[in-house]
Design brief:
Among the domains are: 109 residues, Roll (PH-domain like), CATH 2.30.29; 176 residues, no CATH class; 188 residues, no CATH class. The relative contact order is 0.03. The protein is elongated and about 120 Å long. The strands form 2 sheets. A 5-stranded mixed β-sheet has the order 6-5-4-7-8. Strands 1-2-3 form a 3-stranded antiparallel β-sheet, with helices on one face. By secondary structure, the protein is α+β, with helices and mostly antiparallel strands. It is built from 40 helices and 8 strands.
Length: 804
Amino acid sequence: MGEIDAASRRPYFIVRNELDAEDVLLQSYLEGGIQYQRQQETLIVWTDLAGKDLALSFQENEGCADLCDFIVRVQQENLSPSISLYYVVTTMSPASASSDGPREITELIAGPIAYPPDTPTRDSLPEMLELMRSACNSMYLRYKVSAFLIDSHYFDRLFALFLRLEKSHDLEGLHCLNDIIKIALYFSEIRIVEELVSTEARVMGVVGILEYDRNFPDFKACHRDYLMDESRLKTVIDIPLPTCGPIDQMDIFRKDFVLQYLKNVVLPRNSEESALNLLSGMIHNNQIEIIDFLIDSSANDNFLQRLFDVYDPLSSASRTTKHDGVRLLHQYVFVAKTSPSNQSADFFNSLVNFGLLKMVKFALSEQESSLRVLGIEILTTVIDQDVSLVNLVSNENKEVDELENIADHPKDSKDSKDSKEHEDPEAKEQIHEKSESIKLNLMNDMSLTLILGKLLLNDQNPALKIQTYEAIKNLLCSTVFDLDLANKEESNDFAGDDERINEHGMYVKRYFEAFYQQVAPTLFQTFIELATGSDSEILETQKKLQHDPILFQHLCDLISFCCHEHQSSIFRPFFTKSRALEGIVKILNLNVNVTLKLGVLRCFKSLILLDDHALCYYMIEHDLFEPFFKYFETVANENSLPNSSCLDLLEIIIRRSLNENFGCLAAHISQNYKAFLESKIEYVSTGRDLLASAKKFKERMKDITVTSVDVDQEYLRDPQPSSPISRDFNGFYQTEGQNECSQSYHDAIESLDQDDSFSKRKRENFPECASEKRTCKVERERMTTARQEDNPMEEEANPRGMTT
C-alpha cells in the first residue's frame, strides 16, 4: 500500500507480512525521477535510485489499480513531481513485418511535462516542435499541452511571431510554425480549434501560417486573400448577426464559412481522419445554432418573411438577389435535413408558412439549369420531411389567421364565450363562407404541380427529371392525406367532429380533381395526341417518344400510380374522356424503344388489375386490346421479355376469370382474337386456357341460377367493390333507360355465340381487319330487374345488392 510520512511528507510504498503487521517486507520511497511501469494488469515494476530492480505483484487487479492511483496523486500534488507512471500494453500484432512476436505499447499516465517557453522566439521553435511531436504519443501529454496552449492564449504569441518571421522572409521559421499549428490541429482537441476560430484575427493567423507548407517550399497558398474576399460570403437579407460569445468573437455564419474552408481546402491534403471528423462535428453543431437562429423570428428580425417577400410578383428585388436567396436557403435546408427531427420539423414548418413555395416556383421556372436543380432539391427535401407541408390542405395556420381578421374575435379569453353566444348568425355564415372560399382556393391552386409537370416534360437533365417525377408522385399520394387526418384526430383537432372529417375528405377529393383538370391535360398531352391526332401529328409524336423514351416510361408509371392511389370516380373521367388510354396502348405499334413498350404493358396491366367495371367496359367498347395483339404478334415467336410480359397479361385475365370483369375481358378476347390464341402461341397453354376460361364464363352467364356471389368472393375483402349496377363509362350510376347502348349479359353472351359475319372476318383476317371493333357490352341493372321478377325472394337474400 502507499503511505505518506507525516513528518517529512515523503511518499513511500510499504509491504507488510500478512501474518505479522509489524513485520515490514518492503519500504520504497517515491522520489527522484523513478519511472514506474504497470504491466499485465497486476504487476508494477521500477528501478529505485540505488539501481535495484523491484516489482510488486497483486492477486487482484483492484490492488494494483489502487497503488497506481496513489502514484498519480503523488505526482500531480507535487509531493514527488519528477516521478512518472507508464502503462505497458501488450498487443497481439507483431512489432514489425519481420517479427512474429507480440508488440508492446507504452503510454504515459502521469509524469513531469516540459512546456513551451512563455515567449516563443525563432530559436525556440525547433524545441517546441519536438515537444509537440512527443505530445502526440501520449493522451496525458496531449491533454496537458493543449490546456497550457489554451489557458495562456499561447497561439496569439505564435501569431505575433509569425508576422515578424513573414516580414523577414524567414522561410525555415515559417515552415516550423506551420508544422506546430498542424500538430496542434491533429491533437483533435475541440478546445484548440474553438480557440483558433474564435476571432477574425486568429483565423487570419492560422490560415496565414498554413500558407507556408514545408512539403511545397516553392509555392505559397492564398488562404487569407480568399477569406478576406467579401464576395465569397454574400449578404442577401440584412439581419442582426448573432455571435458565439463575447462581442469580439466571430458570428455563426462567418464561423460556418471558415470551418468549412478549413475542412475542405486548407487541411485535406495531409490531414488525419480524426482532425477532419472533429471539424465535421463542429460544423454540424454550428449549423444547428444557425437553424435555431433562423427559426427565431424575434432574434433575426423576421428574416424568413423578408426573404420570401423578395419573390412576390410586385417585389423590386433584382434577379441576382433572388438567385442568391435560393442558394442561401438551399444550403441550410440540407443542414436541417440532418438536424434533430424536432428542430428540422420546426424549420420546415416555418419555411412553408412564410412562403417557401414562392421561392420554389421561381427557381423551377428559371432558365438557369443549376437554379432549377436547387429548387427541386429544396422541394424534395421538404417533401421527404413531411409532404403534407406542401399539400396546402394541411396548412391551416394561414387560413385561421385570415379568418380571425374577418371574424374580429376579442382576444380576451373571458369574453370569447359571450361573443359566441351573441354572435350574429349572418356574420357566422359569412365567416364560414369565407373559410370555404379560402380552402377551396388553396385546393385549386395547382401552380406548383403544373410547374413540376412542365419541368418533367421539358427539362433535359435526367437526374432532375427523376427528382421531379418523385416530387409529383409524393404530391399525388393519397396516403399522406390519410396520415394527416389521423394525426389531427390523434391531436384532438378533429376528434369527434364528423363534419370536419367529411370536409377534410371533400377537400382532398377537390385537390385530386384539380390535378386532373389543370395539370393532367398538359402532363399527358402526348398520349391524347396519339389517340386523337392525324397521321402527320402521330408521326411527330412518335419522334417525341423516340427522343425521350425514359420520360414517357415515367408518365406510364405515373398513370399506374394515380389509378391505384386515387378513387376511380376521380381519375376515370379524365382518362376516358380525353382518350389518353387509347393513346398509351397505341405506343405498342409505334417504332419506339422496347423499354418504353414494356412500360406501356406494365401500365396496361395495372389498369386491368384495378378490376373496375366501367374501365373494363371502356376497354371493350374501344377495343384497347387491338394494339396489344398487333404488338404481341410481332414478338410471339421471340424468347424475350416483351413476349413474357404479353403472356403474363393474358395469364392475369385467366387467373381472375371467375370475376365478372375479367370474365368479360376473356370473352371479348376469345371472340375477336381466337385465331391468334389458337395458332400464334401454341407453344404455351395460355391461349387454350384463355379460350376455356371464356367458354366457362359464357356458360356461367347463361345459367340463371348462378349469382355473382357464387363465382366471386373477392367483394368480401374489397372495402369499395366495383358497383354491381350499371354505370356509364365515366363511372356514374345510370337509371333505367339511360343505358340505351348496352345490353344484358344474356344478350351479350348470345351475340358471342352467334358468330356473325363481322366476327368471322375478325377471326380469319386478324390483324388486317383489326381496325373493325367488336365489343362485349354488359348491362346488369336490366338483368337484375328481370331476375328479381322471376325470383322475388332473392332480393331479401341479397341485402348488399349484388347482381345475379
